[in-house]
Amino acid sequence: MADRPADGLPDSPGPLLRVAGATVVLGGRVALERADLSVDASELVGLIGPNGAGKTTLLRAVLGLVPLAEGEVTVEGRTGRRAGQRIGYVPQRHEFAWDFPIDVAGAVLTGRTRQTGWLRRPGAADRAAVAEALELTGLTELRRRPVGELSGGQRQRVLVARALAAGPRILLLDEPFTGVDVPTQDLLNELFGRLATEGRALLMTTHDLAAAARTCHRVALINRTVVADGGPELLADPDQMLRAFGLDRAIGTVTAS
Predict the structure, then answer these.
(1) pLDDT value at 95 more than 80
(2) Distance between CA 9 and CA 12 in Å, rounded?
(3) Which residues of 135-150 are buried (b: 16+ CB within 10 A; e: fewer)?
(4) Does 90 score more than 80 pLDDT?
(5) In this predicted structure, what is the pLDDT of residue 82?
(6) Burial letters for 157-166: b for 16+ Cβ neighbours within 10 Å, e otherwise?
(7) Is the CB of residue 253 less than 8 Å from the CB of residue 242?
(8) Vertex 160 angle, CA 17 and 71, to 5°
(9) What is the pLDDT of residue 164?
(10) I need a labelling partner for 38 at 20 to 30 A (CA). Which of 140, 142, 146, 158 fits?
(11) What is residue 119's predicted lDDT score, i.e. its pLDDT?
(12) DSSP string, the chain
């Protein structure tokens, strides 16, 4: 674990992110029930489960986008609105308006809204943060290209750069490898590892079990609650995978979730 995070602030005692007994009810249905999870500094945790298991709901609960019926989310020891100020969020690609007339640098600059507000002109610190995020994600040469002209892998890198521009201690990643090419996967894997080494905490939802086994420090299996939490070897445990995915032992297919 790093002695000091990338932004020069001292480490907080305990995990950077802690979810305790989180329950979320959406449309009268329990989408998440008494979920417990923590992520330390310098740690990349994979959140794994079937479709509809509550992975994205958990991320949105951490962000405060959906209310908790029960439980608590703590970020660097803080709760409530202040807790979300040090979180970067990379949504799934379909959640961004790619037909909006904006170039790559402009899209990444929107990640600085918490710092600049909606009306203030960006300053030198904002421009420097955008330039660094573009360099980290290999987008510097594309900074003036309209986002509507980008490939799927380039669009994914824009979303990562936008989150990084805010200088987050915690990065939430919702299926960052879905539908992207192998070079982009390799670049992002290397980048996420580097960010963890620098002292950030990363929580990533993914369906790619092989990639999670290779890259994650820990994995959490979820099916409306966190059913198991441990090292990547957890993905090879048939009993725990059965609990998370409802896998039939005989035919090895998903039968319930």
Answers:
(1) yes
(2) 9
(3) ebbbbeebbeebbeeb
(4) yes
(5) 64
(6) bbbbbbbbbb
(7) no
(8) 25
(9) 96
(10) 158
(11) 62
(12) --SS-TTSPPPPSS-SEEEEEEEEEETTEEEEEEEEEEE-TTEEEEEE--TTSSHHHHHHHHHTSS--SEEEEEETTB-GGGGGGGEEEE--GGGS-TTSS-BHHHHHHGGGHHHHTTTSPP-HHHHHHHHHHHHHTT-GGGTTSBGGG--HHHHHHHHHHHHHHT--SEEEEESTTTT--HHHHHHHHHHHHHHHHTT-EEEEE-S-HHHHHHH-SEEEEESSSEEEEE-GGGGG-HHHHHHHH-B-TTT--B---
Residue range 85-95: mean pLDDT, rounded:
88
- Please state, as a whole number, how many other Cβ atoms lie within 10 Å of the Cβ of residue 22: 24
Task: Give the per-residue pLDDT at 1.
Answer: 32
CA proximity to 169, closest of 32, 41, 22: 41
Name residue, tokens 């209310």: 67
| Residue 243, C-beta contacts closer than 8 angstroms, at least 6 positions apart | 221, 223, 227, 228
CA 173 to chain centre: 2
Q: Which position has the token pair 């959906």? A: 66
Give CA–CA dist 171/89, Å, rounded: 6
**Edge-to-edge strand order for the sheet containing 218-222?**
87-90, 170-174, 201-205, 43-48, 218-222, 226-230
